[in-house]
TrEMBL record:
Domain of life the protein comes from: Bacteria
Ranges of residues in domain Acyl-CoA thioesterase-like C-terminal: 125-259
Ranges for domain Acyl-CoA thioesterase-like N-terminal HotDog: 18-104
Residues forming coiled coils: none
Organism the protein comes from: Knoellia aerolata DSM 18566
Protein name, entry field: TesB-like acyl-CoA thioesterase 3
Length: 269
């Protein structure tokens, strides 16, 4: 069993999250979304054949620590084309994450392609900058679960030269060779450093609300990812993400609202 499959394993309404999925002092939000998605897959799969997540919305109510997590599911709708399930992740009786996901059959909904966003031009993975646990990233243990290669043109923040353009690009996959699937895509959507790093804000950016879409089952191999922001106001920003698979097909996209502590000097518009 791979580390990711162990993360999303649920027995008798409980999951056990290892310390390997942490960013700073809490479990990564993407890991929690994948866990909740797996719970919803198992719940909807018990009543119909819809097991591909196509849309999800997640609200983070409290930080989750490594250890036992209670998982509660409720199938809200089981229709002919779509099914919807709500998942609550709790610790110590306190609700920490509420996740609502809609499921369908992507064999029906991923073809034909009438219009699609093209992937960004990037150097090959071996020519990109690997993300490693060092310095301020020492406590980001999910980096050990990932093979993350950031486009050198978007990694100036790591050497004190932030581009201040609100865009980061990278190649991403699991470090242990596990191939991507639709359950893993919510994790990957939230696995990159916050896009506010490009403004020199090298701190934790807690997610407040997250919504995502899965557009196709990913092919094996590297995933290509781009994250952007257009509005950083006060202590909040939005981050948009798009993921392409090895066929250059869009397989997932998302938007999240997150908090940030920006450097003292504001960036001119």
């Amino acid at each position: 069993m791979t580390e990711f499959d162990d993360l999303v394993r649920i027995e008798d309404g409980r999951a056990d999250i290892s310390p390997g999925w942490v960013v700073g002092a809490a479990v990564n939000g993407g890991a929690l979304m994948s866990l909740a998605t797996r719970a919803a897959v198992e719940a909807t799969g018990a009543v119909d054949a819809h097991t591909d997540p196509v849309a999800f919305s997640t609200t983070f109510l409290a930080a989750v620590q490594p250890g036992a997590v209670e998982v509660a599911t409720e199938v809200l709708r089981a229709g002919r084309s779509f099914s919807t399930c709500e998942v609550t992740l709790s610790q110590g009786g306190v609700a920490c994450v509420r996740h609502s996901a809609t499921f369908a059959d992507l064999d029906v909904h991923s073809e034909p392609v009438h219009r699609a966003e093209t992937p960004p031009e990037m150097p090959e993975p071996e020519s990109c900058a690997p993300a490693v646990r060092a310095g301020f990233a020492e406590q980001i243990t999910i980096l050990d679960r990932l093979d993350l290669r950031i486009d050198p043109a978007t990694v100036g923040w790591a050497v004190g030269q932030p581009a201040r353009d609100g865009e980061m690009r990278a190649w991403i996959r699991f470090a242990d060779g596990r191939e991507p699937d639709t359950t893993a895509l919510p994790f990957f959507l939230d696995a990159m450093p916050p896009v506010t790093f490009t403004f020199g804000a090298l701190g934790w950016a807690p997610t407040i609300a997250f919504s995502g879409h899965v557009r196709s089952r990913p092919a094996p191999g590297w995933l290509r990812m781009r994250i952007t922001t257009r509005n950083v106001v006060g202590g909040l920003f939005e981050e948009d993400a798009v993921i392409w698979d090895s066929r250059d097909r869009v397989v997932a996209q998302s938007r999240q609202l997150a908090g940030v502590r920006m450097p003292a000097a504001p960036v001119a518009s």
